[in-house]
Amino acid sequence: xxxxxxxxxxxxxxxxxxREYFTRLTFEDALNLKNNFPNTLPKxxxxxWTFDTTVHNxxxxxxxxxxxxIPHYDDIHNIIELMPQAYAELARSVNLILSIPGASSWExxxxxxxxx
Length: 116
What we know:
Number of helices: 6
Helix content: 25-40%
Order of helices and strands: HHHEEHEHEEH
Number of strands: 5
Strand order of the largest sheet: 2-4-5
Structural class: alpha+beta
């Protein structure tokens, strides 16, 4: 894995749920997490996905938002494995179409640092 790719994946230390965030987490902070924790979607919630060369810098693309619905690890694991090669081919984000059974689908875009 190239150092530029690793640097691109590293979120700001101030971003919620980053490695540095958990390093600084206090017991008091942990008590407040339950009020803002994202929810994991069930397996199979990613309908389609594509890599994108655009560097998306919106808060929604860069950080996990309170109460956000995030893909199940089993669904996103394959994307994570393909990201180093996609980065070498100039991809910087991933577009996902998500769905919950019985609900409509929606599109999200994640900067690579949010995926990891």
